Amino acid sequence: MGEKLEIRCATESLARDEPLIGTASRVQRWLVVEQPGAWGREALADSHLPAEVAAPLVAHARSHRVRVILARRPGDMRRDGDRRVFLAHTGAERRWIEQLVVPAAHPERLLDIELGPLAFPDPPGLGEPGPAGLALVCTNGRHDPCCADKGRPVIRVLAAAGVPDVWESSHVGGDRFAANVVSLPDGVYYGRVEPDEAPALLAAHRAGTIDLRRYRGRSHLPPLVQAADLYARQHLGEVRIDGLTVLSTEPGPDGTTVVVLQPRGGEAVAVVVERVRVDEAVQLTCRVPELSRPWSYRLVEVRAA
Predict the structure, then answer these.
(1) pTM, whole model, 2 decimals?
(2) CA–CA distance from 152 to each of 169, 197, 253 (Å)?
(3) How many CB atoms are closer than 10 A to CB 191?
(4) pLDDT for 226-284, tens place per residue?
(5) Whose CA is closest to 92, among 264, 256, 278, 222?
(6) What is the CA radius of gyration of the chain?
Protein backbone atom coordinates (compact mmCIF):
# COMPACT_ATOMS: atom_id res chain seq x y z
CA MET A 1 0.00 0.00 0.00
CA GLY A 2 1.32 3.45 -0.89
CA GLU A 3 2.14 6.14 1.61
CA LYS A 4 -0.88 8.17 2.63
CA LEU A 5 -0.28 11.91 2.79
CA GLU A 6 -2.76 14.14 4.57
CA ILE A 7 -2.20 17.32 2.56
CA ARG A 8 -0.86 18.66 -0.71
CA CYS A 9 1.36 21.52 0.39
CA ALA A 10 1.18 23.44 -2.91
CA THR A 11 -2.62 23.34 -2.89
CA GLU A 12 -2.72 24.50 0.72
CA SER A 13 -0.22 27.30 0.11
CA LEU A 14 -2.22 28.60 -2.84
CA ALA A 15 -5.49 28.38 -0.89
CA ARG A 16 -4.11 30.58 1.89
CA ASP A 17 -2.73 32.99 -0.72
CA GLU A 18 0.81 32.66 0.58
CA PRO A 19 3.05 35.20 -1.20
CA LEU A 20 5.97 33.99 -3.31
CA ILE A 21 8.01 37.03 -2.36
CA GLY A 22 11.39 36.47 -0.73
CA THR A 23 11.33 32.65 -0.93
CA ALA A 24 14.22 31.79 -3.28
CA SER A 25 16.84 29.50 -1.76
CA ARG A 26 20.10 31.28 -0.88
CA VAL A 27 22.66 29.71 -3.25
CA GLN A 28 25.58 31.09 -5.25
CA ARG A 29 27.52 27.91 -6.08
CA TRP A 30 25.95 25.07 -8.05
CA LEU A 31 26.94 21.64 -9.26
CA VAL A 32 24.32 20.17 -11.61
CA VAL A 33 24.94 16.49 -12.33
CA GLU A 34 23.12 14.61 -15.06
CA GLN A 35 21.66 11.48 -13.46
CA PRO A 36 18.98 9.71 -15.52
CA GLY A 37 16.58 7.27 -13.97
CA ALA A 38 14.53 7.54 -10.79
CA TRP A 39 15.48 9.66 -7.77
CA GLY A 40 14.40 9.00 -4.21
CA ARG A 41 13.53 11.37 -1.40
CA GLU A 42 17.18 12.28 -0.88
CA ALA A 43 18.12 12.40 -4.53
CA LEU A 44 21.88 11.87 -4.38
CA ALA A 45 21.67 8.99 -1.92
CA ASP A 46 18.53 7.47 -3.46
CA SER A 47 19.45 7.27 -7.14
CA HIS A 48 21.54 5.06 -9.38
CA LEU A 49 24.60 7.11 -8.48
CA PRO A 50 26.93 4.69 -6.63
CA ALA A 51 26.87 5.10 -2.86
CA GLU A 52 30.66 5.30 -2.74
CA VAL A 53 30.39 8.39 -4.94
CA ALA A 54 27.19 9.98 -3.61
CA ALA A 55 28.14 10.24 0.08
CA PRO A 56 31.60 11.78 -0.44
CA LEU A 57 30.16 14.14 -3.06
CA VAL A 58 27.59 15.40 -0.58
CA ALA A 59 30.27 15.99 2.05
CA HIS A 60 32.66 17.62 -0.43
CA ALA A 61 29.95 19.96 -1.71
CA ARG A 62 28.83 20.89 1.79
CA SER A 63 32.37 21.86 2.76
CA HIS A 64 32.47 24.30 -0.17
CA ARG A 65 28.87 25.55 0.28
CA VAL A 66 27.93 24.14 -3.11
CA ARG A 67 24.36 23.09 -3.91
CA VAL A 68 24.29 19.76 -5.77
CA ILE A 69 21.34 19.19 -8.07
CA LEU A 70 20.60 16.03 -10.01
CA ALA A 71 19.16 16.64 -13.46
CA ARG A 72 17.95 14.67 -16.45
CA ARG A 73 16.63 15.47 -19.86
CA PRO A 74 12.81 15.46 -19.88
CA GLY A 75 11.58 11.89 -19.71
CA ASP A 76 15.07 10.35 -19.72
CA MET A 77 14.85 7.20 -17.58
CA ARG A 78 17.91 5.35 -18.90
CA ARG A 79 20.43 4.16 -16.32
CA ASP A 80 23.70 4.52 -18.20
CA GLY A 81 25.55 6.87 -20.53
CA ASP A 82 28.05 9.65 -20.02
CA ARG A 83 27.02 12.38 -17.61
CA ARG A 84 26.98 16.05 -18.45
CA VAL A 85 27.97 18.17 -15.48
CA PHE A 86 27.38 21.90 -15.12
CA LEU A 87 29.28 24.18 -12.75
CA ALA A 88 27.59 27.51 -12.09
CA HIS A 89 28.22 30.68 -10.12
CA THR A 90 25.19 32.92 -9.50
CA GLY A 91 26.83 35.96 -7.95
CA ALA A 92 25.66 39.53 -7.61
CA GLU A 93 28.08 41.00 -10.14
CA ARG A 94 29.30 38.11 -12.29
CA ARG A 95 27.66 34.84 -13.35
CA TRP A 96 28.82 31.91 -15.39
CA ILE A 97 28.25 28.29 -16.37
CA GLU A 98 30.88 25.75 -17.37
CA GLN A 99 30.26 22.19 -18.49
CA LEU A 100 32.18 18.96 -18.68
CA VAL A 101 31.49 15.27 -19.24
CA VAL A 102 32.07 12.42 -16.78
CA PRO A 103 32.31 9.01 -18.50
CA ALA A 104 29.58 6.53 -17.64
CA ALA A 105 32.15 3.96 -16.57
CA HIS A 106 33.85 6.34 -14.13
CA PRO A 107 31.28 8.14 -11.93
CA GLU A 108 34.00 8.46 -9.27
CA ARG A 109 35.50 11.22 -11.40
CA LEU A 110 32.77 13.46 -10.03
CA LEU A 111 34.88 13.53 -6.87
CA ASP A 112 37.83 14.96 -8.81
CA ILE A 113 35.96 18.14 -9.77
CA GLU A 114 37.38 21.15 -7.95
CA LEU A 115 34.55 22.94 -6.16
CA GLY A 116 36.51 25.76 -4.52
CA PRO A 117 36.62 27.85 -7.73
CA LEU A 118 32.81 28.00 -7.79
CA ALA A 119 33.12 30.74 -5.16
CA PHE A 120 34.83 33.13 -7.56
CA PRO A 121 33.23 35.54 -10.05
CA ASP A 122 35.37 34.49 -13.02
CA PRO A 123 34.99 31.15 -14.82
CA PRO A 124 37.81 28.86 -13.61
CA GLY A 125 38.31 26.94 -16.85
CA LEU A 126 37.52 23.56 -15.29
CA GLY A 127 35.50 22.67 -18.37
CA GLU A 128 34.15 24.24 -21.54
CA PRO A 129 31.87 27.28 -21.55
CA GLY A 130 28.33 26.16 -20.79
CA PRO A 131 25.06 27.19 -22.40
CA ALA A 132 23.82 30.75 -22.04
CA GLY A 133 21.25 29.51 -19.56
CA LEU A 134 19.75 26.44 -17.93
CA ALA A 135 16.15 26.09 -16.80
CA LEU A 136 15.71 23.57 -13.98
CA VAL A 137 12.16 22.34 -13.33
CA CYS A 138 11.82 20.42 -10.07
CA THR A 139 10.01 17.12 -10.62
CA ASN A 140 11.37 15.24 -7.59
CA GLY A 141 8.11 13.63 -6.52
CA ARG A 142 9.72 11.24 -4.03
CA HIS A 143 10.96 14.31 -2.15
CA ASP A 144 7.53 15.94 -2.31
CA PRO A 145 4.52 14.81 -4.39
CA CYS A 146 3.67 18.39 -5.33
CA CYS A 147 6.95 18.66 -7.23
CA ALA A 148 5.84 15.81 -9.49
CA ASP A 149 2.16 16.80 -9.64
CA LYS A 150 2.99 20.36 -10.69
CA GLY A 151 6.43 20.05 -12.25
CA ARG A 152 5.91 17.18 -14.67
CA PRO A 153 3.12 18.87 -16.65
CA VAL A 154 5.37 21.92 -17.01
CA ILE A 155 8.32 19.86 -18.25
CA ARG A 156 6.13 18.02 -20.76
CA VAL A 157 4.87 21.27 -22.25
CA LEU A 158 8.37 22.76 -22.43
CA ALA A 159 9.72 19.61 -24.10
CA ALA A 160 6.89 19.56 -26.61
CA ALA A 161 7.50 23.24 -27.40
CA GLY A 162 11.20 22.56 -28.03
CA VAL A 163 12.36 25.06 -25.41
CA PRO A 164 16.17 24.69 -25.24
CA ASP A 165 18.31 23.78 -22.22
CA VAL A 166 15.45 22.63 -20.02
CA TRP A 167 16.14 19.92 -17.45
CA GLU A 168 14.11 18.03 -14.87
CA SER A 169 15.78 18.55 -11.50
CA SER A 170 15.87 17.29 -7.95
CA HIS A 171 14.77 19.41 -5.00
CA VAL A 172 15.48 23.15 -5.39
CA GLY A 173 13.61 24.42 -2.31
CA GLY A 174 10.06 25.59 -1.68
CA ASP A 175 7.99 22.49 -2.48
CA ARG A 176 4.79 24.35 -1.63
CA PHE A 177 5.42 26.78 -4.48
CA ALA A 178 5.49 24.09 -7.18
CA ALA A 179 5.86 24.14 -10.06
CA ASN A 180 9.27 25.63 -9.38
CA VAL A 181 11.58 26.76 -12.18
CA VAL A 182 15.13 27.96 -11.49
CA SER A 183 17.17 29.77 -14.11
CA LEU A 184 20.96 29.55 -14.09
CA PRO A 185 23.30 31.38 -14.06
CA ASP A 186 21.19 34.39 -13.03
CA GLY A 187 19.71 32.53 -10.07
CA VAL A 188 16.11 33.60 -10.69
CA TYR A 189 13.48 31.45 -8.96
CA TYR A 190 9.94 31.23 -10.31
CA GLY A 191 7.06 29.57 -8.46
CA ARG A 192 3.53 28.34 -9.23
CA VAL A 193 4.41 28.20 -12.92
CA GLU A 194 1.49 26.84 -14.94
CA PRO A 195 2.09 24.59 -17.97
CA ASP A 196 0.33 26.84 -20.46
CA GLU A 197 2.41 29.88 -19.48
CA ALA A 198 5.80 28.17 -19.10
CA PRO A 199 7.11 28.52 -22.71
CA ALA A 200 6.31 32.24 -22.82
CA LEU A 201 7.76 32.79 -19.36
CA LEU A 202 11.07 31.21 -20.35
CA ALA A 203 11.11 32.97 -23.73
CA ALA A 204 10.72 36.30 -21.95
CA HIS A 205 13.40 35.30 -19.47
CA ARG A 206 15.84 34.44 -22.26
CA ALA A 207 15.08 37.88 -23.69
CA GLY A 208 16.15 39.42 -20.37
CA THR A 209 12.91 40.05 -18.49
CA ILE A 210 11.28 38.63 -15.35
CA ASP A 211 7.65 37.58 -14.95
CA LEU A 212 6.93 39.40 -11.68
CA ARG A 213 3.73 37.40 -11.07
CA ARG A 214 5.80 34.20 -10.64
CA TYR A 215 8.99 35.74 -9.25
CA ARG A 216 10.21 34.23 -5.95
CA GLY A 217 13.54 36.06 -5.84
CA ARG A 218 17.19 35.74 -6.84
CA SER A 219 19.40 33.21 -5.15
CA HIS A 220 22.34 35.53 -4.41
CA LEU A 221 20.17 37.84 -2.29
CA PRO A 222 19.08 37.31 1.34
CA PRO A 223 15.31 36.73 1.59
CA LEU A 224 14.48 40.20 2.95
CA VAL A 225 16.47 41.84 0.15
CA GLN A 226 14.68 39.58 -2.34
CA ALA A 227 11.44 41.04 -1.01
CA ALA A 228 12.73 44.61 -1.34
CA ASP A 229 13.86 43.85 -4.89
CA LEU A 230 10.37 42.74 -5.89
CA TYR A 231 8.67 45.68 -4.15
CA ALA A 232 11.00 48.07 -5.99
CA ARG A 233 10.32 46.34 -9.30
CA GLN A 234 6.57 46.59 -8.77
CA HIS A 235 6.86 50.27 -7.82
CA LEU A 236 9.08 51.15 -10.79
CA GLY A 237 7.65 48.74 -13.35
CA GLU A 238 11.16 47.30 -13.70
CA VAL A 239 11.21 43.82 -15.27
CA ARG A 240 14.76 43.65 -16.67
CA ILE A 241 16.72 40.87 -14.97
CA ASP A 242 19.64 43.19 -14.29
CA GLY A 243 17.54 46.31 -14.00
CA LEU A 244 18.26 46.89 -10.29
CA THR A 245 21.40 46.95 -8.17
CA VAL A 246 21.36 46.73 -4.38
CA LEU A 247 23.39 49.64 -2.97
CA SER A 248 22.91 49.20 0.77
CA THR A 249 20.92 47.51 3.51
CA GLU A 250 20.51 49.25 6.87
CA PRO A 251 18.32 48.82 9.97
CA GLY A 252 15.34 51.15 10.02
CA PRO A 253 12.95 52.27 12.77
CA ASP A 254 10.62 49.85 14.58
CA GLY A 255 12.36 46.72 13.42
CA THR A 256 12.20 47.55 9.73
CA THR A 257 15.01 47.33 7.20
CA VAL A 258 15.83 49.96 4.57
CA VAL A 259 17.15 48.59 1.29
CA VAL A 260 18.45 51.10 -1.25
CA LEU A 261 18.32 49.98 -4.87
CA GLN A 262 19.56 51.69 -8.01
CA PRO A 263 17.61 51.18 -11.22
CA ARG A 264 19.57 51.27 -14.44
CA GLY A 265 19.16 54.73 -15.87
CA GLY A 266 17.04 56.00 -12.97
CA GLU A 267 17.09 57.49 -9.48
CA ALA A 268 17.81 55.26 -6.48
CA VAL A 269 14.90 54.28 -4.27
CA ALA A 270 14.75 53.24 -0.62
CA VAL A 271 12.45 50.31 0.12
CA VAL A 272 11.39 49.93 3.75
CA VAL A 273 10.44 46.34 4.60
CA GLU A 274 9.26 44.68 7.78
CA ARG A 275 9.88 40.96 8.37
CA VAL A 276 7.30 39.15 10.51
CA ARG A 277 6.24 35.59 11.23
CA VAL A 278 2.88 34.55 9.80
CA ASP A 279 0.10 34.39 12.39
CA GLU A 280 -0.82 30.73 11.99
CA ALA A 281 1.55 27.76 12.01
CA VAL A 282 1.21 25.67 8.86
CA GLN A 283 2.58 22.47 7.35
CA LEU A 284 5.17 23.55 4.80
CA THR A 285 5.71 20.30 2.90
CA CYS A 286 3.64 17.23 2.18
CA ARG A 287 6.00 14.85 3.98
CA VAL A 288 6.93 16.85 7.10
CA PRO A 289 3.92 17.05 9.45
CA GLU A 290 5.48 19.51 11.91
CA LEU A 291 3.91 22.95 11.81
CA SER A 292 5.98 26.08 11.21
CA ARG A 293 5.47 29.83 11.01
CA PRO A 294 7.43 31.02 7.98
CA TRP A 295 8.60 34.59 7.55
CA SER A 296 6.56 37.06 5.57
CA TYR A 297 7.54 40.51 4.29
CA ARG A 298 5.46 43.66 4.53
CA LEU A 299 6.14 46.74 2.46
CA VAL A 300 6.16 49.88 4.61
CA GLU A 301 7.05 52.37 1.89
CA VAL A 302 9.09 53.09 -1.21
CA ARG A 303 10.65 56.53 -1.31
CA ALA A 304 13.41 58.43 -3.05
CA ALA A 305 16.79 57.53 -1.60
Answers:
(1) 0.95
(2) 10, 14, 45
(3) 26
(4) 999 999 999 999 999 999 999 999 999 889 999 999 999 899 999 999 999 999 999 99
(5) 222
(6) 19
